[in-house]
Amino acid sequence: MHIELGPEYSTLWPGKPPQMLPSDVPAWQAYREKHAGEWEKFYYNVAMTLRDFPKDWSLERVKSATYSLGKRVDVVAYRKDLIWLIEVTDRAMVRSVGQVVVYRRLWEKLRPFKQEFEGAIICRYTDEDITYTCDKEGIHLIIVPI
What we know:
Blueprint: E1 2-4, E2 8-9, H1 25-35, E3 41-49, H2 59-69, E4 71-79, E5 82-88, H3 94-110, E6 116-123, H4 128-137, E7 140-143
Parallel strand pairs: 5-6, 6-7
Antiparallel strand pairs: 1-3, 2-3, 3-4, 4-5
């Protein structure tokens, strides 16, 4: 089992997050510009896996395998009392919901931080089925106008 948080980023950092799809960046930037003050820091492209790697592997090899094989959270938003595991997408669909469900389960097992954690999807568009499902699953669904 391994999690690779990567570097901390300031909530005011205006760059393109590592590995975020170009079509998803505008939704993230719109959210970050309005809500950066609600968070202390962000982690991007956070890879995690429950796979067990051979004991003789170096830490560098484990990190590399985690990035290759692990599931990657677009953004981990951090503050003292709460963590959000955020999937950022232009259009939230079934895949987005499934990703957040998996991220929450892996985070629950790995638990790199002790505070409560929640799942979120930040998008520009979605539909009624996804809105309903996010509500039932306890996933924050934030639709940002661009």
